[in-house]
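Exercise 7b. Backbone tokens:
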């Protein structure tokens, strides 16, 4: 007899989304009676989604084993989920079945040769290649010059971001950037619920950083797309980058991270000098 899927993560996500949405924001009158929280009641969300109160309660409590696409779409509309949240909802509602192929996730990831070749054409800007759990697979010489940390292949970008005090000092908008990283982690755990090493990474970061624990408990999800990063460089002053994450269809578990700059900007003008400075530092 097949094991029943674990719906606890789905219920927690639904509760977090209805807690943040008031009846007024949802476009309905609040049901009468005292309210313990400002967000939607179960009964209010059920009406918005066209479900019975009992049906929705079973879903949120993890007692509803069969969930149709129509029901998930109705809940997503009622909760006003964005595209990433909708995808996360579907992942939680239909968790992947453990297969032997999951064993390959325990092996060391190898950098994609095509992405490595692409990195060489982008050597004028900081770039790094990340694996499925934020492991550094490759990076160019400009990246450590900008971030102030070596990050050799095999290191965890996420552990540096959350556990090294230097990350908070170097990244001016650290809180915005770090919160997005936690949202991306939450999204990945929904896509890969059986990834043991990913779960261990999340547990370790939550245990050692209260910011991670707080953002994780908010159940927010984000995708790794375009974000901005402001750097306070000790030698070159403020630097501004747009961070672009690129993937390829044949290996979506690797992401090429490119630090882009506005043409003609102070940051663009500083990069050649920064590259020369990094070479001098490396040889002294």
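Sequence design result:
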């Amino acid at each position: 007899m097949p094991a029943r899927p674990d719906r606890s993560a789905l219920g927690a996500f639904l509760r977090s989304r209805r807690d943040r949405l008031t009846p007024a924001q949802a476009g309905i009158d609040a049901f009468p009676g005292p309210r313990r929280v400002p967000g939607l009641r179960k009964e209010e969300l059920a009406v918005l989604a066209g479900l019975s109160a009992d049906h929705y309660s079973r879903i949120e409590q993890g007692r509803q084993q069969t969930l149709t696409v129509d029901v998930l779409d109705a809940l997503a509309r009622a909760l006003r989920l964005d595209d990433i949240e909708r995808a996360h909802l579907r992942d939680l509602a239909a968790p992947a079945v453990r297969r032997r192929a999951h064993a390959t996730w325990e092996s060391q990831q190898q950098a994609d040769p095509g992405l490595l070749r692409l990195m060489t054409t982008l050597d004028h800007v900081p770039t790094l290649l990340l694996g499925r759990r934020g492991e550094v697979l490759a990076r160019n010489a400009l990246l450590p010059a900008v971030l102030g940390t070596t990050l050799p292949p095999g290191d965890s970008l996420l552990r540096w971001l959350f556990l090294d005090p230097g990350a908070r000092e170097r990244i001016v908008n650290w809180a915005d950037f770090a919160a997005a990283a936690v949202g991306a982690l939450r999204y990945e755990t929904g896509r890969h619920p059986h990834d043991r090493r990913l779960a261990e990474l999340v547990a370790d970061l939550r245990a050692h950083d209260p910011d991670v624990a707080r953002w994780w408990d908010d159940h927010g999800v984000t995708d790794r797309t375009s974000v901005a990063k402001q750097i306070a460089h000790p030698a070159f002053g403020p630097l501004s980058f747009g961070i672009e994450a690129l993937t390829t269809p044949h290996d979506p578990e690797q992401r090429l991270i490119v630090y882009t700059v506005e043409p003609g900007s102070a940051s663009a003008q500083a990069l050649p000098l920064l590259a020369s400075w990094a070479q001098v530092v490396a040889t002294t």
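Instructor comment: The chain has 14 helices and five strands. Residues 96-104 have pLDDT under 50 and may be disordered.
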